[in-house]
């Protein structure tokens, strides 16, 4: 009896495990998250700069 009881082809070490459609979904959800995160960082930097000018 084999220790590898997977059904389907065995994937190599460097082969991608996600399909192209799943990768596309990941990028479409990552883009808005990146924009929101970048905007939040700039807002925090602007608040910090405004606080420094009041000192």
Short description:
The chain is an all-alpha fold and 55 residues long. It is 64% helix and 0% strand.
Please give a structural write-up:
With 55 residues, the protein is mainly α. The chain has a domain at 20-55. Helix content is 64%, strand content 0%.
Which ranges are low-confidence, i.e. pLDDT below 50, for 5 or more consecutive residues? none
Number of helices: 1
Q: Helicity level, as a percent range?
A: 55-70%
Q: Rounded to an integer, what's the Rg over CA atoms? A: 23 Å
DSSP summary, beta strand count: 0
- Taking the alpha carbons of the first and last residues, their distance comes to 75 Å
Beta strand %: under 5%
- Helix and strand string, N-terminal first? H
The coarse overall form would be rod-shaped
**What's the oligomerization state?**
single chain
Look at the helices and sheets and give the structural class. Answer: mainly alpha
Mean pLDDT: 76
What does the main sheet amount to?
none
């Amino acid at each position: 009896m084999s220790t590898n009881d997977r059904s389907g082809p065995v994937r190599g070490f460097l082969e991608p495990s996600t399909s192209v459609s799943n990768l596309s979904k990941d990028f479409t959800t990552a883009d808005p998250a990146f924009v929101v995160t970048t905007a939040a960082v700039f807002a925090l930097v602007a608040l910090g700069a405004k606080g420094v000018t009041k000192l």
